[in-house]
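Record format v2
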Amino acid sequence: MTSETDHSPGAHGLGEAVAARIERRWATLSIVIIGVLVGLAAFFGIYHTTMPQGRVETADPTTLHLSGEFVESNLGSVLEVDGSVTVRAIGQQYSFTPQCLVVPAETPITIRATSADVVHGFLIEGTNINTMLVPGYVSDLPISFKAPGEHMMPCQEFCGIGHQGMWGKVKVVDQTTFRNMAASKRRLTCVD
Amino acid sequence: MSEDELYSPRNPWFSISVGVTAAIAVLSAIVGLIWLPLLQPNLKLAGIWDAICSAAGVPNLPRPAAAVPPAFKTSNVVVTPEMLTRQDQVSIGRGATLAQRCAICHGPQGVSDANSPNLAGQYAAVTYKELNDFKTGARVNVVMSPFAANMADQDMRDVALYYAYLPRVPSSQVNPNLPAPAIVVTGAPMRNIPPCGSCHGEIDIKAGSPWLGGQSAVYIKAQLQAFASGTRRNDISEQMRNIARQMTAEEIDQVARYYEAQP
């Protein structure tokens, strides 16, 4: 600091002291605001109320049907050896394949989905599943359904002129029904 | 107060503000890049370095999971909007010669009344894809499969470009007064059906979708029924089967009659 603050009994020194105090308060306030925001982000992350995807995975949208996990015959639900269920789906102009996903209740489920053309939205009504299907990237979401029932799954991102006709269904069945279905088929859907 | 002293560690305002900012940054980085990723058990992270990389968005190749192979042939054509859109005179010329063997069903000008598809003016990507699917067996037809079986890839491109080059000829059934059915212009959103026109022209065109104007109603109806029943499955990732399955027999009739009457 300069010598001004050291020996300034006059009005000038008082002004400077007031300014410094106010400055300190504002600085403290802004630090507190930043701290709260960081804390909020951490809180939501810990309690999974928002689920930013932890890993970036890529998939070529033009060749999904040639090889890899998104070939037509591999779409749908599969019961994994650890008892969890993986559901694979794609969004394309203007439908989801499969059109109807079948999953068991009270079971950890991983949804893996991607887009074959443009950006689509993936939303399951009644749950906090709401993400984008971006061509080139795989969306991977953990979810669990409490009770059997049916949920709508509309595309919630304008994807073109046929967007309003693009939706699917999620059918939640009880665990026994699902296990019986899984015993006879390797990939399950509820498309009729 | 000179510049020197303002940006100096001896200035408590400077050292404290820089120190606090750096502390917040480091703390947030530890929370965001290490702590939060490690709290997600389904990520199966290998360690701190893996957590940092995945949180920072380093792309991972999808895990090699055993995919169930298809029980039937699916189309192996990679359709892009740019596909076969460039006119190539040599290709068109070769295609014209090759197309002579197609004329008996598809007409010398790519138009016929034989209820086989009219190819004149059809998008090259469409003709090429169908030929390729006939060749690989993704689409099966007693007449077309043997024809396509012996065609080289370049032959199929040439024929496709030739037919795309031919002018569309209005069919004998043109009736501009026929009103467009609801399914063509608005679809049936409540039944998961987008408008036909959002892919097949009129409203918008999706790469790989055929132009349907002037096609035989018999042909369109037969294809929609085949998609609905699953006897035709060369549409990539079920894009047409998803739609045809939901259509009523009446809608299929309306669509077939409407497109036949279009230029």
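The two ends of chain A are 80 Å apart (CA to CA).
Residues 57-184 of chain A form a domain with the Immunoglobulin-like fold (CATH 2.60.40.420).
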